[in-house]
Amino acid sequence: MRLVLLGPPGAGKGTQSVVLANKYGLPHISTGDILREAVREGLPLGLEAKAYMDRGELVPDKVVTGIVAERLKKPDTRPGFILDGFPRTLKQAEELDKALKAMSSGIDIVLYFATSPEVAIERLTGRRVCKSCGFNYHVKNMPPKKEGVCDRCGGELFQRPDDTEATVRNRLKVYEDQTKPLIDYYMKQGILKRVSGDMGVDELFKVLSKIFSDAKLS
Ligand code: ADP
Ligand code: ZN
């Protein structure tokens, strides 16, 4: 099963990806995660990407398409994959189609997570992430037992530099301008499925499972 998760920042793509990856045994490929890791490791790629990310802008197409093309060559993607946060521009979508076609492959379903900007802003500005294990909290909706400390591992919680309100607003604008055209692109291919990103995690997971079984993908 080859999936693309499309939708604004804060729609819950990352959270659902992790659940789906576990359930279906597929690799979760998040360009945001790959870029953040490159930043942490101080790689040249990370140095190039960091300035864009901190401003809430997109990293150049060439950089991200290169990352994804390499990642899709790894054998663990043979049974399928979950692409989270890629493609984000028409150019990226076209490059992805080309790369998959060259491997006699293609995308089965694009899940479009529709979410209102208000929900996205509330989720992202309240998000706190564990420095050690990466688990996500929310100051209001899912606070840790002790403020600033991870329930799971005792690690320190922090706010992503791009989760401040001004940057979140910019990310949403970038999404409107550059990523939204992909809805039409995939609708025309007949592979887009719209779901509501405002639903809870378990509820949405059930909706997605039904989409896969109806499409005879699971
Ligand atoms: P979100 O979807 O919540 O904005 P991500 O973790 O997916 O967060 O991405 C964080 C940042 O990484 C983006 O704002 C952007 O700068 C960069 N990035 C991730 N994926 C891409 C992509 N496909 N193209 C360009 N930039 C990307
Ligand atoms: Zn932790």
Walkthrough of the structure:
This protein has nine helices and eight strands. The chain is an alpha/beta fold and 218 residues long. The protein has one domain (2-211): Rossmann fold. Strands 2-3-1-4-8 form a five-stranded parallel sheet, with helices on both faces. Helix 4 (61-72) runs parallel beside helix 5 (90-102) and helix 6 (117-125) packs across helix 7 (165-179). The termini are close together. Adenosine-5'-diphosphate binds next to helix 2 and helix 3.
Label this structure with key terms.
alpha/beta; Rossmann fold; three-stranded antiparallel beta sheet; 218 residues; binds adenosine-5'-diphosphate; single chain
